[in-house]
Design a protein that fits this description.
three-stranded antiparallel beta sheet, 35% helix, alpha/beta
Length: 313
């Protein structure tokens, strides 16, 4: 494609730029299409349209997935900047039109109701909205100004965010009801050393939730690749795998064929409030105060030993 074939910059469609950024982050058209709620063929067409408008091929596909071309690598930071500027402009316009509005996100199994109720009680004039997010959406939702704050479990990338640790949540082992370990008071790493665990698509999550590699450097036994932690339930129920999950997920309360066992010697995960670094909105500060006071998990008081209670990244 010759550079002179490219359309003027004014012809850029931010929707196409956003599609490209998501594909570049996921490195996989299928996962990106699912996150964007579009079909894979449609996403491919949109990327081709963007490439025509840029005047260069941005992405290459092979058996391992999708990778950036040199042109794509050069375009990506500018694409992210375009999206960030557009999101900030829209957010500031909304804030000027409706200054008393805040949207709080939360990921699966985390209860934010007490803090939301307190905020609504103390700020009755404010519009307080809540939205459920997948963990993979947290950063995009914050930087895209879809939400102003998110209650989620670490680990996830925290650069550019302010992180407030709310409480610690135990990790438990989820097994089939008829598994040989079912009924145990607790299990240690040695008890599950040979048990396959479903693999997660993001390296940071996979390492944390499968404890891979193990403390002695050996890799964790591989199980099937899944998209989300909850996708593992059928695999576990059928005896093909076990999984380490947060206690607050309470999978065994909705699946009678599953049972959870306390883990001995495993550090708990941290439940945090994430906001954009430098965020000064009074409603965000008010929600942070309410969350710190009221969100303490299901019977597990907050501990400040493992990390500072509030830290910028």
């Amino acid at each position: 494609m010759h550079p002179t074939d490219a359309l003027p910059p004014a012809e850029f469609d931010l929707r196409l730029v956003r599609y490209f950024a998501v594909v570049a982050e996921q490195r996989h058209f299928g996962r990106a299409a699912a996150l964007l709620h579009v079909t894979q063929p449609s996403l491919s067409r949109q990327i081709r349209t963007l490439e025509q408008r840029v005047g260069a091929r941005l992405l290459d596909r092979d058996r391992q997935g999708t990778r950036l071309t040199p042109a794509g690598a050069a375009f990506l930071p500018h694409a992210r900047q375009l999206l960030a500027v557009a999101a900030t402009a829209a957010a500031e316009a909304r804030a000027a039109a409706a200054p008393s509005r805040v949207t709080v996100g939360h990921t699966r199994g985390l209860i934010i109701t007490p803090a939301v109720q307190r905020l609504r009680h103390h700020r009755p004039e404010a519009e307080v909205h809540t939205v459920h997010l997948e963990l993979s959406e947290v950063r995009a939702a914050l930087f895209g100004h879809r939400v102003d704050a998110v209650v989620a479990r670490l680990p996830f990338a925290t650069d550019g965010l302010r992180i407030t640790v709310l409480y610690e949540e135990p990790r438990v082992l989820l097994v089939a009801g008829d598994h040989q370990l079912a009924g145990r008071e607790s299990v240690a790493l040695d008890d599950i050393a040979a048990e396959p665990m479903p693999r997660l698509p993001h390296a940071e999550w996979d390492s944390y939730w499968r404890l891979d590699p193990r403390p002695d450097g050996t890799p964790a036994p591989d199980g099937p690749l899944i998209g989300h932690l909850e996708d593992s339930f059928e695999l576990i129920a059928s005896g093909q795998a076990v999984a380490i999950v947060p206690a607050g997920l309470r999978a065994d309360s909705t699946r009678p064929d599953l049972t959870s066992i306390p883990l001995h010697g495993f550090a708990p995960c941290q439940v945090v409030l994430a906001t954009r670094a430098g965020e000064t909105a009074p409603l965000v500060a008010a929600f942070r105060e309410a969350a710190q006071a009221l969100l303490k998990g299901a019977g597990h008081p907050r501990s400040d030993r493992a990390a500072p209670a509030d830290r910028p990244h």
